[in-house]
Design goal:
single chain, 12 strands, 11 helices, alpha/beta
Length: about 325
């Protein structure tokens, strides 16, 4: 783990600290923060010890034995101050990272273009149409989903029959979800709950184990014994392949939300609706229900901003591992 001092104001410092704490595989541990001189006098920012100000960064690096300084956007830190900081840290061998204000934007969309000695970060627009989206639609979605339906049809028929035998009611569950551009569609799943599940939602609201707009209970009494097994291995999701073939969903994409969830979306989250929802996605291969609401939405937005055919392929391959591990599936 690299020992990192973060230089910036409260908001940016907190965001970086939380991201590095969530994803320790980056190999960075925040050990201190340096704040603008006029904001000195506090002991911590977002739970991180304040070890100095912009005027004492070099001293702070030595005091806490840091080997990396991460500099975040801050109006009090001028280009001249940044240049002098780089000079002062040369003799210490400290790595210097200058972070931009962009969040969850992958490297291929950015490029550095110096203009008269000033490094300018150029950002390409997210690709939301074109030939690669056609390949995604006809090869990844129509062809692959149709092939999977043919191969898995014996399993679907067997499970559907088992559902009818073990609990009263239909084998399939239909629900209205919101798709691309805010269009409603009917999602198809294998039924995993008793018929009175919707009417019992109110009495279980206080037991919700999830934050944000999602409702999840690890041991939900509305789920049938067979339904628990189906959810564990995501078999209940397989009928969504029909939605994929119909063009309402994609194999990979953001989680398909309920209309009640979309009604409470802040403006930023409406960005999720510019692409089709997916049977699987970054949210599923990263923990599913074990993720917080904030993390789930952040991953969906990251997918929209950085979509590529390669990313879809990676998510599909990781889905196999996620299903076998059944982490967050309940």
């Amino acid at each position: 783990m690299r020992r990192v001092i973060v230089v910036g104001d409260d908001t940016t410092v907190g965001e970086l600290h939380r991201q590095l704490a969530r994803h320790q595989y980056h190999g960075m541990q925040v050990v201190g923060v340096c704040v603008p001189p006029q904001r000195d006098g506090r002991n911590s920012v977002d739970g991180i010890e304040v070890v100095g100000t912009f005027d004492t960064i070099t001293r702070a690096v030595i005091d806490v034995a840091a080997d990396t300084v991460a500099i975040l956007p801050c109006p009090e830190l001028s280009s001249a101050m940044l240049r002098r900081l780089v000079w002062s840290l040369e003799s210490t061998g400290t790595d210097i990272i200058v972070a931009g204000a962009l969040l969850d934007v992958a490297g291929p969309r950015t490029s550095l273009r110096p203009i008269d000695g000033l490094p300018m970060l150029h950002l390409d627009h997210a690709e939301l149409a074109g030939s690669r989206w056609m390949i995604k639609r006809f090869f990844f979605d129509v062809f692959s989903a149709s092939l999977l339906l043919i191969l898995l049809s014996p399993l679907l028929l067997a499970v559907a029959l088992a559902i009818r035998v073990t609990s009263s009611g239909p084998a399939f569950f239909r629900q209205t979800r919101v798709g691309k551009d805010g269009e409603n569609f009917t999602i198809l799943k294998l039924r995993t709950m008793y018929l009175d599940a919707e009417s019992r939602l109110g009495e279980l609201a206080a037991l919700n184990e999830h934050d944000g707009l999602l409702f999840k209970i690890r041991h939900d009494p509305r789920v049938t014994p067979l339904g628990r097994w189906l959810r564990r291995f995501s078999i209940d999701e397989l009928p969504q392949l029909f939605n994929v073939v119909a063009g309402q969903m994609s194999l990979v994409g953001p989680r398909p939300p309920l209309p009640s969830e979309v009604a409470e979306y802040p403006d930023d989250l409406m960005r999720r609706l510019v692409v089709k929802p997916g049977v699987t996605g970054l949210w599923q291969v990263s923990g599913r229900a074990d993720l917080s609401w904030e993390d789930s939405m952040r991953l969906d937005l990251r997918y929209v901003e950085n979509w590529s055919l390669t990313l879809d392929l990676v998510v599909l391959l990781r889905t196999v591992t996620a299903v076998v591990r059944s982490a967050g599936a309940y």
